[in-house]
Design brief:
This protein is an alpha/beta fold and about 550 residues long. It has 20 helices and 21 strands. It comes from Coprinellus micaceus (Glistening ink-cap mushroom).
């Protein structure tokens, strides 16, 4: 009698002839059943795949994003991060968003601010007026901003400094007819014009081309309604050339904001104290300066700005409310043999309407010159020391002691000079409401000494700073009575370098007692050391190329 097949499957005995026949018959039956099941399963899987695909196509129809109104979609689009080189310019994001779907394209078209800022590469041979005008027309009645830039024009010439030569009238990239046509014929108004010209002659040719088409500085047109004018001259050999003087004389009278990015300075042998320093005024017409409410002046790493050059310009800015100066780490030093500086050393510089003063990348040695500025209405003061790209390095962080010669290393700067500059005229009522200090180390009591009688201060920001781990500054501020920072409401301490652990003595007790809203962050040394993109860590932005698509 043959053994049951399940018993044969559990041993290693050789099957008999009849058992082998039974096994083969069983195998054939199971294989037939398996084939039927697989056939049925294939049908079910096909149905399942179809159903899944159908669900994936149907569910998005009910997605909340489809019900979001165009206005809200537009606000979302406006919050997409823009280029660091051109904050507020949405050209790249608009092009990408418009390719997603018709609804997004329609939402973008119905959001005027997405189209109000345009950048044009002057080197591009395919610039078409109709296409650019159609783009800017979608901004509607919103004032528009335009930036025109080029990294080259003619050949390269050599002197004390390498500079780029203009190709000349008719060949210069900035002599194209499309630019004055845009400023004259485009509907609406232009709020801002930014020019990044490779040479001063390029700027002159651009301004003359506007004049040749009949555009006048006083015309009530797109050009005549301009409010902001910016010139980047970082590749130039000279800022004081006749080309610059004639070009700036054509700035519309409507302009109230000017930004100038100065070039490196050629050696001026005839003026001993002017070696590698701008000593001449900035050539902005007096009429224009009298109308200014905002002025920004920055210099590249190889340029030094003499106080006389800056102050000779500022003395005519009687209505100035916002001033930003970026010195790229160089000192602003007054020389007694400079006849222009001698006047300001004796009389100072009065800016009675100045409310916002932002000093970027300055040297502590500049404080002696800067305190000549008298600004009795100042509300906001921001100071950053040395280069922003090195704020994480101790060797480029200036140390401040309470007083000159006080306990501390010989390299410590005078905290009293910093305090005097921040406080201004102590005989006048305090007005300062916001103070931002970046990249400095306070020795014992220096911070307390600077802050303790800022009676009107409501916001304090300390960025990339250091303070001894046993310092009593906040203890002294807390115990100094209600007269110490009585109006302080918010405080930001960001990327604190020292103490390494972040425990500033008595800081917590101070903010709790005063009810101050504190935002706090440490310098993340692990992220800094492990991340090879150091610039990104320092600034929060990726480095970008102007020619990125």
């Amino acid at each position: 009698m043959p053994l049951p097949l399940d018993i044969l499957s559990r041993n290693n005995d050789s099957p008999t002839h009849h058992e082998a026949l039974a096994v083969r018959a069983e195998i054939e039956e199971v294989e037939l059943q398996r084939e039927r099941i697989l056939a049925e399963l294939a049908i079910i899987q096909a149905q399942l795949s179809h159903n899944t695909t159908r669900l994936e196509s149907l569910k998005p129809i009910l997605a909340p994003i489809r019900r979001v109104p165009f206005e809200i979609l537009g606000e979302i689009f406006l919050r997409i991060p823009t280029s660091q080189l051109r904050p507020g310019n949405h050209q790249k994001s608009v092009c990408k968003l418009s390719l997603v779907c018709k609804r997004w394209r329609d939402a973008a078209r119905l959001t005027p601010r997405l189209w109000s800022h345009i950048w044009l590469n002057a080197e591009n041979p395919k610039l078409v007026f109709e296409a650019i005008s159609a783009w800017t027309s979608r901004a509607g009645s919103i004032p528009k901003e335009i930036e025109i830039s080029s990294s080259c024009c003619g050949g390269v010439q050599w002197g004390n400094f390498r500079s780029i030569r203009c190709a000349g009238l008719g060949k210069c990239f900035f002599s194209k007819d499309i630019f004055p046509k845009l400023l004259k014929q485009t509907p609406g108004t232009w709020r801002s014009l930014s020019l990044n010209c490779p040479s001063p002659d390029c700027l002159r040719i651009f301004m003359l081309s506007l004049q040749a088409t009949g555009l006048k500085p006083w015309d009530n047109t797109g050009w005549g309604s301009l409010r902001s004018f910016e010139v980047t001259a970082s590749k130039w050999a000279d800022w004081t050339s006749p080309s610059v003087v004639s070009a700036l004389s054509l700035i519309p009278e409507s302009v109230t904001q000017i930004a100038i990015h100065l070039p490196p300075v050629a050696r001026q042998e005839a003026v001993p104290f002017a070696t590698f320093a701008w000593v001449a005024p900035l050539n902005i017409p007096k009429v224009t300066m009298a109308n200014l409410t905002s002025l920004k002046v920055s210099s590249v790493a190889k340029a030094v700005l003499a106080p006389s050059a800056l102050f000779s310009t500022l003395q005519h800015c009687v209505n100035l409310k916002t001033l930003e100066v970026d010195l790229s780490g160089h000192p602003l030093l007054c020389h007694s043999i400079d006849p222009r500086a001698a006047y300001f050393i004796e009389h100072g510089l009065s800016l009675p309407n100045l409310q916002h003063l932002r000093l970027r990348q300055i040297s502590p040695k500049s404080l002696a010159a800067l305190k000549l500025i008298k600004s009795p209405s100042l509300l906001e003061l921001s100071i950053s020391f040395y280069l922003d790209s090195y704020v994480d390095r101790d060797e480029t962080t200036p140390n401040f002691s309470k007083e000159e010669g006080d306990i501390g290393p010989s390299a410590a700067y005078d905290g009293q000079a910093l305090a005097d500059f921040i406080h201004g005229d102590r005989g006048s009522p305090p007005t300062l409401q916001s103070l931002h200090l970046k990249n400095l180390f306070f020795f014992d009591d220096a911070l307390h000494h600077i802050l303790h009688d800022l009676y009107s201060l409501s916001h304090l920001q300390l960025e990339w700073i250091g303070i001894p781990g046993n310092a009593d500054d906040f203890h002294d501020l807390m115990n100094g009575g209600p007269q110490c920072l009585p109006l302080l409401k918010t405080m930001e301490i960001t990327k604190l370098k020292y103490p390494i652990g972040g425990e500033i003595p008595f800081l917590r007790e101070f903010v709790e007692e005063r009810g101050v809203d504190l935002k706090f962050s440490l310098h993340d040394r692990v992220a800094w050391e492990n991340d090879n993109k150091r610039y990104f860590y320092l600034t929060g932005y990726e480095s970008e190329s102007e020619d990125d698509d």
